[in-house]
Amino acid sequence: MNTVFVDTAALIALGNERDSFHSAAWQIQQALVRSQTRFISSDFVVAEFCNAFSRVKLRATAVQMVNGMYQSRAWTVVAINESLMAKSLELFTQMRGKEWGLVDCSSIIIARDKQLTRVFTADKHFEQAGFAILLT
């Protein structure tokens, strides 16, 4: 089955018409849906996205998008449990020469565990980690 990890950058691009990646993100998302791709993300990514969309003008968009993620059978949102947090912190500690945040580290751990090769993002950190990024 075709599966892609969805990062915060893609959610922001999809939800914000003024984002420079908005049009490309919508085209990519539509192509992924047409090819029956499954989407995986995490509750850390959801939280980061909601924080970015916490302004009054964007909040309703965030709520609608997040509710859609949780209600869709095409989506899996991975909860960050104690084990995943420990692995994420370990990677975060190891990557002293990189500017990877903890959310990125947890996303990388999830994507590796699921043996994914593609990440729906513009974030070059995922490319540094060996993934193909879809927003370029």
| Biggest beta sheet attributes | 5 strands, parallel
Helix content: 55-70%
Strand order of the largest sheet: 3-2-1-4-5
Distance between the termini: 24 Å
Protein name: PIN domain-containing protein
Pfam family, one: PIN
Domain PIN: 4-131
GO molecular function, one term: RNA endonuclease activity
Describe this structure in words.
- The protein has 136 residues and is α/β, with parallel strands linked by helices.
- The chain has one domain: Rossmann fold (3-Layer(aba) Sandwich).
- It is built from 7 helices and 5 strands, in the order βααβααβααβαβ.
- The protein has helices at 8-15, 22-34, 43-52, 56-71, 82-94, 102-113, 124-128; strands at 3-6, 38-42, 75-78, 118-120, 132-133.
- The chain has a 5-stranded parallel sheet, sandwiched between helices.
- β4, α7 (124-128) and β5 form a beta-alpha-beta unit.
- α5 packs across α6.
- The longest helix is centred in the middle third of the chain and has 16 residues, at 56-71.
- The radius of gyration is 14 Å and the shape is globular.
- It starts with a strand and ends with a strand.
- The model has no long low-confidence stretch (mean pLDDT 96).
Question: Would you summarize the structure shown here?
Answer:
The chain has 136 residues and is of the alpha/beta class. It is 57% helix and 13% strand.
Key descriptive features of the protein:
single chain; 136 residues; alpha/beta; globular; VapC20-like; PIN_dom; PIN-like_dom_sf
Describe the secondary structure blueprint for this structure.
Elements: E1 3-6, H1 8-15, H2 22-34, E2 38-42, H3 43-52, H4 56-71, E3 75-78, H5 82-94, H6 102-113, E4 118-120, H7 124-128, E5 132-133
Parallel strand pairs: 1-2, 1-4, 2-3, 4-5
Helix pairs in contact: 1-2, 1-3, 5-6
GO molecular function: RNA endonuclease activity
Domain PIN: 4-131
Pfam family, one: PIN
